[in-house]
Amino acid sequence: MKLTIDTDKLSDAAQWVLRAVPSNPPTPVMAGMRLEAADSTLTLAGFDYYRSARAAEDCEVSEPGTLLVPGRVLADIVKTLPKGKPTTLALDGTDLALSCGTAHILLPTLALDDYPTLPTIPAASGTVDGATLAEAGAAVAPAASTDETLAILTGVQFALSDTTMVLSATDRYAFHVADVPWTPNPAVKGRGKNKPRIKGSAIVPADVVRDAARILADADKAELTITDSQFAISVPGRWATGSLLDGELPKYVFPTEFESVATTGTEALTDAIKHIQPLLGKADPIVLEVADDQITVRAGTDDKGRGRDQVDASLEGEPLSIAFNPGLLLKALQQVSGPVTQINFTTSTKPALLHGVDQADVFRGLVMPVRLS
After folding, report:
1. Residue 88 burial (CB < 10 Å; 0-12/13-18/19+)?
2. Can you tell me the distance from the alpha carbon of 269 to that of 173, in angstroms, rounded to the nearest whole number?
3. Exposure on the CB side of residue 257, measured as CA atoms within 13 A
4. What number of CA atoms fall less than 13 Å from residue 269's CA on the CB side?
5. Is the dihedral of CA 202, 22, 93, 112 positive or negative?
6. What is the mean pLDDT of the chain?
7. How far apart are CA 258 and CA 309, in angstroms?
8. Which residues, listed in sequence order, are joined to residue 165 by a DSSP beta bridge?
9. pLDDT of 207
10. Is 53 exposed, middle or buried (0-12, 13-18, 19+ CB in 10 A)?
């Protein structure tokens, strides 16, 4: 192998692929990053048995070839090389030689034959606007649990229909949902092992969704693939795959009739909660007193201190007082993209539904209240 590539492009590609290189590999070879040079393209890949990341960049290939090097070391080195200068990669015996400006580095290669085969990516299930899917994934994934003892709750569910995919996630205390328009691949017919699907639902690990969002933010169009066992997303020059989780999320029914509906500034309410939050322990709730023209946020105890703040609001329906876990409420509020948040209440003991005004199809969050003693 011998090639010359723009250093910035090489660094971006290595950083993207690094997310699929395990930090504590089960075997030394799994710490590797696979490099393949062919047809004026350098393709980098990482794999940890349940997810993979690939990146391709244009380069000048003098000698094609494939090798495996320590992934984190390569990414860290390339990140420090002079910007705006080309980097040359060349196989030197059993080492990979990197040259950029006055820097010359030798990296030992790893046993390529012992590296697992990268997952193949079937035909696309369909296409979707990359930025829209990135925004939806970033808004829904925070509701996924981080408790690995119930693995299914650590994922994001993708429910596919003819024109819309619905993303949802829950930790049983909050539910985040977002709708994303998509175009199914008309060539996909029927179902089978490792065949793309355009109907049904699948649970994708939340960290895979977060990673995918990073490459989708600036993409006009992305290809999405869901099979019976795999999720894949691709944009020009970048690919990500992940193994699906087995099972289904708990069923959820969002209320459609409400006793009270309040609207208030998203940023103002977020700031008011943050002003009071330092007084609280992990299990301490925050109380919203919702009235005709304002929402009063209060919390605290005698031993830790007490506080309150007020924000302007409008109310349709009856005033009420309701308590929440402040972290869950903030997490939902931070996903509302509009300047005004609408909070829909049934009673003080039932979940509240919040979303931006006229934006329920973009994002909606259901947050369980806390019962006060």
Report:
1. middle
2. 20
3. 0
4. 32
5. negative
6. 93
7. 25
8. 160, 180
9. 93
10. buried
CA distance 129 to 136: 11
> 85 exposed, middle or buried (CB, 10 Å; 0-12, 13-18, 19+)?
middle
Among residues 275, 272, 273, 316, the alpha carbon closest in space to that of 293 is found at: 316
48 Rama class: left (phi>0) / alpha (psi -120 to 50) / beta? alpha
Which tokens belong to 246?
């087995």
Q: How many CB atoms lie within 10 A of CB 173?
A: 17
Total count of residues recorded for the chain: 373
At 337 the pLDDT is 87
> What are the tokens at 74?
């390569």
Write the single-letter amino acid at 186: P
Residue 133 — very low, low, confident or very high, per pLDDT cuts 50/70/90?
very high
Using CA atoms of 240, 198, 117, 130 in order, give the dihedral in degrees to the nearest 10.
-10
* Residues pairing with 303 in the sheet: none
- 3-state SS string over the chain? CEEEEEHHHHHHHHHHHHCCCCCCCCCHHHHEEEEEEECCEEEEEEECCCEEEEEEEECEEEECEEEEEEHHHHHHHHHHCCCCCEEEEEEECCEEEEEECCEEEEEECCCHHHCCCCCCCCCCCEEECHHHHHHHHHHHHHHCCCCHHHHHHHEEEEEECCCEEEEEEECCCEEEEEEEECEECCCCCCCCCCCCCCCEEEEEEHHHHHHHHHHHCCCCCEEEEECCCEEEEEECCEEEEEECECCCCCCCCCCCCCCEEEEEEHHHHHHHHHHHHHHCCCCCCEEEEECCCEEEEEEEECCCEEEEEEEEEEEEECCEEEEECHHHHHHHHCCCCCCEEEEEECCCCCCEEEEECCCCCCCEEEECECCCC
- The token pair at 89 is 């990669």
Residue 304 contacts residue 331 (beta carbons within 8 Å): no
Q: Which two tokens stand for residue 42?
A: 């350098």
pTM for this model (two decimals): 0.90
Q: What is the pLDDT of residue 281?
A: 83
Cα 187 from Cα 171, distance rounded (Å): 36
Integer angstrom CA distances of residue 358 from 268, 339, 354: 19, 11, 11
